[in-house]
Design goal:
The protein is built from nine helices and five strands. By secondary structure, the protein is α+β, with helices and mostly antiparallel strands. Strand 1 and strand 2 form a beta hairpin.
Length: about 180
């Protein structure tokens, strides 16, 4: 299994990149966000999917997007194309906020997702969102999230406060968040 590649962009083709790794060129499907930010001498994390019609590589510039993709493709009826469309439409933190707020209307805007599928994605992901790496938040913010959840608060009630916080200490973030929640 190919778990990652380090190389240079040979060319960009819509939803994929031809990626040159020491003279071997791989076609790697990526989100539009990742394609626009990819540079030469880049490290891509990859998910390799083998089907009867071929072997496909899906590439990601950060672990949180890869975690989101890997979680989405485990949902029955969600294939790599729809998962990649979601990754192209939302960054991982936006998607997690949509899922926590049961905002299926935003999810419906993704090409290939109707109302029924949007609702099913949100239902299937309830309880699995922790599999998606706390969307690249620093450890002190992730610890504050865990502490507030253990106190019985719902993530949707406080996540935006923590994301926007300029504080860099877990205890200070928790105190500030509790003040704002009152």
């Amino acid at each position: 299994m190919i778990a990652g590649l380090i190389g240079n962009v040979f060319s960009k083709n819509g939803n994929s990149v031809l990626f040159n790794v020491n003279g071997v060129v791989y076609e790697v499907f990526m989100s539009l966000n990742s394609i626009s930010n990819i540079k030469d001498n880049e490290m891509l994390l990859t998910t390799q999917i083998t089907r009867e019609d071929g072997v496909f590589l899906y590439g990601f510039l950060d672990k949180s997007e890869k975690d989101l993709f890997d979680t989405l493709i485990k949902i029955n009826g969600i294939g790599p194309k729809v998962a990649m469309a979601i990754c192209s439409s939302f960054n991982p933190s936006e998607f997690i906020n949509i899922a926590y707020n049961n905002d299926f209307m935003s999810l419906k805007k993704v090409p290939g997702i109707g109302e029924k599928m949007a609702k099913r994605i949100i239902v299937e992901l309830s309880g699995k969102l922790d599999l998606i790496d706390s969307y690249s938040l620093p450890q002190y913010k992730s610890q504050a999230i865990e502490a507030l959840e253990s106190l019985g608060f719902k993530r949707s009630e406080f996540i935006k406060i923590i994301e926007d916080s300029n504080l860099s200490n877990t205890q200070d973030i928790i105190k500030d968040t509790l003040k704002r929640l009152k």
